[in-house]
């Protein structure tokens, strides 16, 4: 049976006092009671940890001649502030000697204090007190502060005028006030006096307010509710982004409020309620103490007084409270109490036997059972819990999970698990990436007893990646390829079974490929060829896969290319002619030729033609063999031993010239056409064809063609022509005739593609300049036009850059402020913390309403 949780114990310490109690204040071991007769009673309190006892120290009968309406003790400054006979006075808290009287406060009805002790800005251990006082006098608020080292209050600013008399006043931090006027609460800023209306209070009980933590004020409204506002007048919301305003619902409208972290105590007419300040706002304790009229608390102990009695609500030991809360599975409140105890040096010793990490583990598991998966896994990650324990809570380990959760809950749990595993995976990869071998061991903790364990890095990587793969398969299958494309440590056979069950064949191929299990990949491709409904039924997938393999898998390529050649010979040939393997990883051509000769003789000729016609691609990547000195580099086939003897002497010269031109050997090609074949027209036609396709080698072609046509090559390269003729078994040509006029005609037809700097050194010195005038004029005009075009482009690019920078600055300067009352332009509901979209017309909508707004705007534009 669960034990009842009662955080406070109520004890009557004064009963049937002969004087009528008006107010009281507790300041450590001393309790000060103000009476209707003007007496101030000083009591000593002891034994709060067990059984509180009280002893009268002194009765100050001459403290005031009128009833003491209000008392406030400021312990750090040893000050006692009192309100009596319509005047606020300041006394020494230790001796109760009067220090000063605030003369301007005559006629005061109430006051409120705000005292904070911020840390010393200089970084030392000293603290500077910040005490502020607000006094209400006849529809005016007088504001004071206590300067450091002073003995009286000084005015903070000019008085604030109110439209009506205040019924209650309280500080909301040091910068704002909350004032109850007539029927509503108002927030007033201290610096400029700005007034903001909040909400009405209950007319039956009047205004009830109490300061809580983090510059927040609790305000009682109608319908027995308590709301929380900050110094800006905004609602305090729950911990989650989508939580609404935080409120506490009472069983009856309270007359007084008091906050003892983490509890909010409501004092009603016949009883006292204790509730928590969170989204649950559940009832914690109910105490039968009637007719209370004044309360005061200090360091977690609450004193309350009726007209003749004083009661003490002192907290039970924290360790006992936390143990009861753990038994009741209220881990959140237990952790909150532990945090409060750790911040209080006087109560920290009570928590020695509480293992807070173990409590957090149980809290995380409890969150998981309550379907708060993201919060649960975030806490488990923060605690460095062994991922094996976390994965064991999901159906990828025990099947009982599916009976507890299903549908949307199960999907949300997978999303949370994917986020958790991705975070753990990043940490493991960062650990592996450390350059210090071996990587240091990773320490985790068990979830049941929070005991440290050293994880096996290899097994942990496999567990995390395999679990993440399964999680993606259940929640978001589109992410599976992204996981398998990167370096992963998924268990091959287990991942294979999961992917086969989900029929994700492309992802299965990625799994095989990353594990270098190429034979399984090729076997899978062969089995799924032309299977209806399969994503890898196309033969192109098999061809592309084989093209990516290289020399280490030569036997595998030959074995699994046979069935492709049998079904589609052209696709089978592409495996070898379009192979993506390069360098030393490329298949040897002789091995491929032997394979095709034995397995597919009909493809051998096509493959050899490919090798001859496309061998220049290999040379263009820097693998062209270096020819002997003085001999231009011919085709690779012509360089093989005995290959030149297979060509007929002085035959197929035009074909030789065409192949040499493809290799960039323009000079030798033009020599064969113009000298050996005595066909300058063909040489000129070939030059025209090359010049019509601008490339990096166009200038070389121009130089060679001009050199051949103008006849200089016969005189200068007769020595070089002999080795070339001998290498290709060509007879020496006849003595050529100069063709300078043909060269000049070529210059006139292509003046812009042949630069003058490269042309003039090739022409004979005796060439008349008159014959070059047209060419030079056209070239200079073209160069000048290009120069002007480039200058114009430069100016346009500069103007465009300036316009783009100005537009970017203009767009970047815009801002969108989502206030509490900002509404959607489509549905007219408040946007709040929801995702929103902002249009160029400065209209703001919900993200879900964006499509409707976009349709409206497009309709207006089309109508215009």
From TrEMBL:
One of its GO terms (cellular component) is endomembrane system. Residues 18-302 form the CNH domain. One of its GO terms (biological process) is autophagy. It is a peripheral membrane protein. It comes from Macrostomum lignano. InterPro entries: CNH_dom, Vam6/VPS39/TRAP1, VPS39/TGF_beta_rcpt-assoc_1, VPS39/TGFA1_Znf. This is CNH domain-containing protein. Pfam families: CNH, Vps39_1, zf-Vps39_C. Its main location: membrane. It is found in: Endomembrane system. The keyword Membrane applies. Keywords: Membrane. Belongs to the VAM6/VPS39 family.
